[in-house]
Design goal:
- It is built from 13 helices and 13 strands.
- It folds into 2 domains: 212 residues, FAD/NAD(P)-binding domain (3-Layer(bba) Sandwich); 150 residues, Elongation Factor Tu (Ef-tu), domain 3, CATH 2.40.30.
- The two termini are 42 Å apart.
- The strands form 4 sheets. It has a 6-stranded antiparallel sheet with strand order 7-8-9-10-6-11.
- The radius of gyration is 22 Å and the shape is globular.
- It has 404 residues and is of the alpha+beta class.
- Bound molecules: flavin-adenine dinucleotide.
- Flavin-adenine dinucleotide binds next to α4 and α11.
Length: 404
């Protein structure tokens, strides 16, 4: 629809405008983003080839010259014999076979149309994301398993605070430096005043309401006595598993607008998280996305309208490379009738996550090793372990496509 109608973040009329950072993250195979890129390469991803041709030096990251990248993608599309590029806003979901990839800043008319098809509660307008940490970086001498009043299967981990630890943590939250929101996001957030979205309020804002607000709210210790002492801690921060093999945990209620280095520093003050490894940092921003597990069929099309596919960030992933990956995946599903990918691949795991029922509010997912099934004989060394994840993934992917 650009340049005739812009979004709040885009400014050109070209395709693939990279609106914020120009980095597609790491190329290294001991990172999940590096592995995802290697998988895309195996699958013949055109966008990645273009990105490499526009690469600018950025250490081990794949960073692109944004104008060159955008121009090259536009040129490839314009020159493609089977593509006609039409610069118009699409106001409603067309009832012909289509792929909707209108992104995190999908126009209001299209959102309205999608809402009519799948329902208000299956469409989200913004993200309130809490950080995710890897299980093997947690200190289980301090952290214990327990559900509140033992109602449940002990799915939660609990980080118990003493009074001093709690006060230090709250004060650090109050002093933490915040990420500078885009102007439109500022307007958006002041507009909603968090009234309707109370449960997505940043933890540092809740802390600002009073020193005890957190321990009377999301950090309340009731029913969470520490089994080692039998006593109720002063406050408790709970961690909820992100996956079935309990290798990654979400910090309950810790959605935040703090800068990433601040998050690393402050959340490591949580008892038992002194050495926490962050698989994803928290954030809050405008983001349109679908409640993927509840609306998709296994082919990433809408359950009720199986000729309507959704790709890119709107489908429930987060990040440039993840959005590119979803585009390629939907293309393979449609053109090659692809039915599955190995669970050991990041792309296969993203696909699985988008189509597998989850408890509670679905949150967009990005490439991280926590999505992958554990190795049969994992080495202790973290870097080695990540490299082995990557080797396993690429071997299985290549073997699926007869490339070995
Ligand atoms: C402000 C902001 C900053 C971000 N920064 C980063 C970052 O630094 N790193 C990172 O990895 N990810 C970042 N993301 C997240 C995400 O990875 C990118 O938004 C990514 O570009 C998403 O790709 P996409 O193809 O799904 O959507 P987009 O790249 O947004 O493409 C969707 C296109 O659809 C168009 N469109 C929308 N509605 C309609 C309609 N009704 N009719 C016709 N066209 C329509 C839009 O104009 C847009 O051109 C950011 C997101 C935002 C919003």
């Amino acid at each position: 629809m650009r340049p005739g109608k812009q979004t709040e973040a885009h400014s050109s009329g070209n395709c693939a405008e990279v609106v914020c950072s120009n980095s597609f993250k790491s190329k290294r195979l001991d990172t999940a983003s590096g592995l995802l890129k290697a998988e895309l390469e195996v699958l013949g991803c055109e966008l990645l080839k273009i990105a490499r041709s526009c690469e600018v030096p950025a250490g081990h990251a794949l960073a692109v010259h944004r104008e060159s990248f955008s121009s090259a993608v536009t040129k490839a599309i314009l020159e493609h014999p089977k593509i006609t590029l039409i610069h118009h806003e699409v106001f409603s979901v067309p009832f012909t076979p289509c792929i909707i990839a209108s992104g995190p800043l999908t126009s209001e008319a299209m959102m309205e149309s999608l809402r009519g098809l799948i329902g208000q509660e299956q469409l989200y307008f913004f993200d309130a994301i809490a950080p995710i940490v890897s299980a093997n970086s947690l200190n289980f001498e301090r952290i214990y398993k327990k559900d509140r009043y033992d109602k449940g299967e002990a799915d939660y981990l609990n980080c118990p605070f003493t009074k001093d630890e709690y006060l230090a943590f709250v004060n650090a939250l109050l002093a933490g430096e915040k990420h500078q929101a885009h102007e439109f996001e500022d307007k958006f957030f002041s507009g909603i005043k968090f009234s309707f979205y109370e449960n997505c309020m940043p933890i540092e804002e809740i802390a600002r309401r009073g020193i005890d607000t957190l321990r009377h709210g999301v950090m309340k210790p009731m029913g969470l006595e520490d089994p080692s002492t039998g006593k109720k801690p002063y406050a408790v921060l709970q961690l909820r598993t992100e996956n079935r093999d309990y290798s990654a945990y979400n910090l309950v209620g810790c959605q935040t607008m703090l800068r990433y280095p601040e998050q690393r520093k402050i959340f490591r003050m949580i008892p038992g998280m002194e050495n926490a490894e962050f698989l994803r940092f928290g954030s809050i921003h405008r983001n349109s996305y679908l409640d993927a597990p509840r609306v998709f069929n296994p082919r990433l099309a809408l359950q009720k309208y199986p000729d309507v596919w959704v790709a890119g960030q709107l489908a429930g992933v987060e990040g440039y490379v993840e959005s590119i990956a979803l585009g390629l995946l939907v293309a393979l599903i449609i053109s090659e009738d692809l039915r599955s990918l190995p669970d050991s691949t990041i792309l296969g795991s993203l696909w699985k996550r988008l189509t597998t029922t989850c408890e509670g509010r679905f949150q967009p997912v990005n490439a991280n090793f926590g999505l992958l099934p554990e190795l049969s004989d994992p080495p202790r060394d973290k870097k080695l372990k990540k490299e082995q994840f990557s080797r396993r993934s690429l071997e299985e992917l290549k073997s699926l496509f007869g490339l070995v």
